[in-house]
Amino acid sequence: MTDHHSEASLGNAGWAAIIRTGQLGQFSLLCLGIWLHAADTMLVATAMPAAVAEIGGDRLVSWTLSLYLLGSILSGAAAALTASALGLRRAFVLAALTYSSGCVVSALAPDMIVMLIGRFAQGVGGGMLVALTYVAIQRLFPKDMWPRLIALMSAIWGASAFCGPLIGGFFADLGLWRWGFWMFAAQALLLAVLVPAFMRPSKGEAAPAQRFPVVRLTLLSLAVLSVATAGIYVTPAVSLPLVAAGGLFFYLFLRRDGSRGSERMFPTRAFDIRTPIGAGFIANLSLGTAAMSFTVYGPFLLNRIHGISALEAGYIIAAESVAWSTTAIAFAGVGAVGEKVVMRTGALMIVLAIAMLGPIMAEGPIWAILAMSIAQGAGFGLLWGFLIRRVVAMAPEQERDSASAAMPTTQQIAFALGAALAGIVANMAGFADSGNHTAMQNVAWWVFVSFVPVAALGAAAAWRVAGPMPAAANEGQPLAGQGAP
User: Fold this and answer.
1) I want to staple 310 with a disulfide (CB 3.0 to 4.6 A). Which of 167, 172, 331, 480 is the partner?
2) Residues near 162 by Cβ (< 8 Å), separated by ≥ 6?
3) In this predicted structure, what is the pLDDT of residue 478?
4) What angle do CA 101, 42, 451 make, to 5 degrees?
5) Closest by alpha carbon to 393, among 279, 471, 282, 288?
6) Within 10 A of 262 (CB to CB), how many other CB atoms are there?
7) pLDDT digits 0-9 by tens, 213-272
8) 434 confidence band (pLDDT: 50, 70, 90)
9) Distances (CA, A) of 480 to 147, 273, 387, 392
10) What is the dotted CATH code of the domain comprising 1-200?
11) Is there a cis peptide before residue 213, judged by omega within 30 degrees of 0?
12) CA-CA distance, 271 to 46, in Å (whole number)?
């Protein structure tokens, strides 16, 4: 979605304007940066079963996504400061080289520990590429072109849902999963070479000096890593204290952030269920966390229980992203009354899909698993954009920028925590100890059913956000939202 003012300007800048102004080359570079980040998740989700079969590390599977997302969160927060310090073009080159280096490390990984180092570097580079892309659009292109450019970038996210599994599954089924990483390393290196040649010097105004939130991001990192570590050592004496420590670190992060005044990363009373804004952030965090089991463990369970190939499993997982994007576009224009119904329907669809995926993943049939993948994605497509719009519209005017930026950040945090928590449940259910059919069916049950209460909490919070809005909030403009992982 775009805001009302941007919609009014569409007539002033048609699609041909990108070519007429000579901007096509540098915009293509931005699309390449988006592609590298967007396709990465589907590529790795599809190729990881083959990688684990060769290098081991079943217990650490969830870390391949947790660390990637953590790197994305950290670098995304640093992107604006990096662009101001180095200049936009140098920042892009640095991000592309970091991503490429991470791909090389993953491609050469002799074991899962080295793979995780590469995944973290990929996350740092990929997250910065995405964040810098939005900085570049504001600096390099006229305002009347922004809506079309953002729409094109959204299409890149959708295309990645098809192409990521195709690439990962193709190489995995041939026993050449490392080639997928080499392919993306080459693309990132190409981006680093082309940026100085095609990207114009930035004309952005000098940003006011800001301090990088080192302490806050350290606390946030410790929260994610504590929970992720609990997924490896699954004895109660170790796991429970680590999960508790993760919750404490996240609380300390929120508390310190609340004292930063104008430098806050989150608006006032974020995650306070007593306020509509807090309910919106809880819905975002809870539903995103609950949905990650499918992305992380879906390919493994489809392969080990149902004998599905890497390519076929990849497309079943990718159906969620496609349904997310398609549904979001189809229902973007509903009115105020329809918006309430659409949001609540979406929240209920997510809970239903997560509840049903356990028994269906364990027993089949395959078409029902595909149907639940589509239902989960469609639920997010119905809910996500309206959830962002309402949270931002209900925030105090001086906090709308922080609310807008914090919602996608919360989504990334939810995905990272969800992957880590799914690792705890899966390993407790025996994922890393046995590969037999019965054990995997047990894992399939628990890795989804355990998250039904979390999803129900998120749906209840979303239900509240979908209620009547204060009159002042209706003046807020609808905002664009990031799509599926």
Assistant:
1) 172
2) 315, 318, 322
3) 38
4) 115
5) 471
6) 8
7) 788 888 988 988 888 787 777 677 787 888 889 889 988 988 888 777 667 777 887 888
8) low
9) 10, 24, 11, 11
10) 1.20.1250.20
11) no
12) 34
Best CA proximity match to 295, nearest among 208, 212, 373, 179: 373
Tokens for 35, please give them. Answer: 């592609």
Of 324, 327, 328, 313, whose CA–CA distance to 291 is shortest? 324
Q: 86: which residues sit within 8 A by CB, 6+ positions away?
A: 94
State the burial class of residue 15 (Cβ atoms within 10 Å of its Cβ: 0-12, 13-18, 19+). exposed
Residues with Cβ within 8 Å of 454's Cβ and at least 6 positions away in sequence, in order, are 286, 289, 290
The Cα 210–Cα 265 span in angstroms is 12
Considering the domain delimited by 265-469, tell me its CATH architecture: Up-down Bundle (1.20)
Residue ranges, comma separated, of all CATH 1.20.1250.20 domains in the chain are 1-200, 265-469
What is the tens place of the pLDDT at every residue in 146-195? 656 665 666 677 677 677 777 877 888 888 889 989 999 999 999 999 98
Residue 160 tokens, joined: 């990645």
* Token duo for residue 291: 């949905």
Q: With bands split at pLDDT 50, 70 and 90, how would you rate the model's confidence at 5?
A: very low
Q: Which residue has the higher pLDDT, 480 or 257?
A: 257
Q: Residue written as tokens 């239902």?
A: 375
277, 391 contact by CB (below 8 A): yes
